[in-house]
Automatic annotation (TrEMBL):
Pfam families: OmpA. One of its GO terms (cellular component) is membrane. It comes from Spirochaeta africana (strain ATCC 700263 / DSM 8902 / Z-7692). Residues 269-332 are annotated as: Disordered. Residues 341-460 form the OmpA-like domain. This is Outer membrane protein/peptidoglycan-associated (Lipo)protein. Keywords: Membrane, Signal. SUPFAM superfamilies: OmpA-like.
Length: 460
């Protein structure tokens, strides 16, 4: 009995010195408070097996820049939120490496979507971008660490990337884990998971050859400490796709999504700064070329080598306008034109001179390239977050596949010239568009010279 009494007294004493229990944590009403601008960058890195055979890594990236604006999508039945218009830059899938380098673009896709205050995304089901939609989304109540909830989302899959996406609805289980830090800032942390399940025909507009999908996704989500903005999502995935012909594709790896609110656009100020420079002028609409007379054979050559050297200087007086390079025989080689576009401020190098049928810039272009590099450096000074997209164009002569290859190589060559002049390589994207977007008549040497051009977009 004495021992029991001592034990009870000791227990009472120990309880009396315990610190008081903290008051219940104040709840957070999670959601998305959209701003005027938003960016989402998703990077995926997955291992791929085909019919049990390891194929390697697929590394992909999608960068989406959104600005508040009206859209064509019917939002009358949607909850409160914000509508955005923007552009998705879809980068090539490559074997991953650790070098900072320019990346080739696969596609540029216009985007229109509605983002609800509860985190739900609404956009056209057939849009090939934003593969994971309405994740995260939140209930209309305050949450404290330890709370759980469920919500629906969508995942768009296209394992063979053949342009036939399949949309799969998913039910996500969430848990508010508490608080941590993200990039040195306090953040709320949420864990989530969902099963990816699909049977043939559930998406009537999906891939008719896709028979079943089985997969598991585990997510870690970082929100701003006040719960109003998504910051980062890590999605660890393991999926299996089975096709009607017995083909089996297995993917495992992770997908990282970064959210940001970019700086205000500086294109107006940059344009004012650049147009006072003698090498840069405002872009004027190109002259409208007369159509060829009916019945006459085309004089279009099969190769750039067929055009006489120095043809960019041979300007047709009949197309001259005040301020046009035609007023000065050498202006076409010295000028950089500037123009505001939906993608951003565009700097163009018309009639840029390469070795014929090669991606080797002629020495005569050195000064113009240096002027371009100085303009881009000015853009980085105004907006350190800016990036650059370089687009190569050729004249429409020869085979289309050769035009495409040459335009890509020439765009890459301009990237290399900019990097040599001190600009960081990882700020550049590049794309070739062959001869599909002429600005002049391809049936004349002068027109073909104008179509051989490089355009640089400053993306904010």
């Amino acid at each position: 009995m004495k021992c029991k009494l001592i034990l009870l007294l000791a227990t009472a004493v120990s309880l009396s010195v315990l610190p008081p229990r903290p008051a219940a944590a104040e709840g957070i009403l999670f959601g998305v408070v959209p701003g005027d601008r938003m960016t989402m960058t998703t990077r995926s890195n997955v291992r791929i097996h085909l019919n049990g055979n390891y194929l390697g890594f697929r590394y992909g990236e999608e960068r989406i820049i959104l600005d508040e604006g009206a859209i064509q999508l019917d939002t009358s039945r949607l909850g409160p939120g914000q509508t955005y218009r923007g552009t998705a830059f879809v980068l090539s899938n490559t074997v991953r490496d650790q070098r900072q380098a320019a990346r080739s673009l696969d596609d540029i896709v216009p985007v229109e979507l509605h983002i609800g205050y509860d985190g739900t995304f609404t956009l056209d089901d057939r849009d090939p971008v934003i593969a994971v939609r309405s994740i995260p989304s939140f209930p209309d109540r305050e949450l404290v660490p330890g709370d759980t909830w469920e919500a629906y989302g969508q995942v768009v899959v296209d394992p063979f990337q053949d342009g036939v996406p399949t949309t799969v609805p998913v039910l996500i289980a969430y848990r508010f884990d508490g608080f941590d830090s993200y990039l040195g800032e306090p953040a709320a942390v949420i864990s989530a998971q969902y099963a990816l399940r699909y049977r043939q025909g559930q998406d009537r507009r999906g891939d008719p050859e896709l028979q079943t999908i089985q997969g598991r996704h585990i997510l870690q989500i970082f929100m701003s400490a006040d719960g109003s903005r998504p910051l980062f999502i890590r999605d660890t995935l393991q999926d299996q796709f089975l096709y009607r012909d017995g083909t089996r594709v297995e993917m495992s790896g992770f997908r990282l999504t970064f959210f940001d609110t970019p700086r205000s656009r500086t294109a107006g100020e940059l344009r004012e700064r650049l147009t006072v420079r003698p090498q840069i002028r405002e872009q004027l609409p190109p002259p409208i070329a007369d159509p060829p007379a009916p019945g006459l054979p085309s004089e279009r050559p099969d190769s750039e080598r067929s055009d006489p050297p120095g043809i960019a200087e041979a300007v047709d007086p009949g197309t001259a306008r005040p301020g046009d390079p035609a007023d000065d025989p050498t202006a076409a080689q010295e000028q950089i034109t500037i123009e505001q576009t939906d993608l951003g401020l565009r700097l163009s190098l018309p009639s840029i001179r390469f070795v014929a049928d090669q991606a080797v810039v002629l020495p005569a272009e050195r000064d113009r390239l240096s002027s371009l590099a100085e303009a881009l450096q000015e853009g980085l000074t105004l907006n350190p977050d800016a990036s650059f997209m370089i687009v190569g164009h050729t004249a429409d002569i020869g085979l289309a596949e050769n035009q495409q290859r040459l335009s890509e190589e020439r765009a890459s060559a301009i990237v290399a010239e900019m990097v040599q002049r001190g600009l960081p390589a990882d700020r550049f994207l590049y794309q070739g568009r062959g001869g599909r977007e002429p600005i002049a008549d391809n049936d004349t040497p002068v027109g073909r010279a104008l179509n051989r051009r490089v355009e640089v977009y400053i993306i904010e």
